[in-house]
Design a protein that fits this description.
This protein is mainly alpha-helical and 99 residues long. The chain has helices at 13-20, 51-63, 65-81, 84-97; strands spanning 2-4, 25-28, 43-46. Strand 1 (2-4), helix 1 and strand 2 (25-28) form a beta-alpha-beta unit.
Length: 99
């Protein structure tokens, strides 16, 4: 399990790396997570500063093996969608389209 509790993220690599490592993710709604995090599907999103929600979410994932496993599997899929080689290929395609 991984708690990503930043106030703001440009892209949110910590959460994505946690997903790629097979961790169930609890994250603040910190802008960077918006690129890949889907609340209650591949992670739990909490409001910034809501420490009680963070603790409740972690306890829930500890106690609910099915939910934790679902997050882990969905997170691994999400992380594979943001593979650096895939991102580089997309940028290459976009940049070549400008020529």
């Amino acid at each position: 399990m991984f708690l990503e509790a930043s106030h703001t993220q440009g892209f949110g690599l910590q959460g994505l790396e946690a997903m790629a490592s097979g961790c169930a993710l609890v994250s603040t709604r910190n802008r960077g997570i918006d690129n890949y995090g889907i609340d209650q599907e591949n992670c739990t999103l909490i409001d910034i500063g809501d420490h009680e929600a963070a603790v409740r979410s972690i306890i829930e994932l500890v106690e609910d093996e099915n939910k934790r496993t679902n997050y882990q599997n969905a997170g691994l899929k999400t992380a594979s969608d943001f593979d650096w080689w895939g991102i580089a290929e997309k940028w290459d395609k976009e940049l070549r389209a400008l020529l």
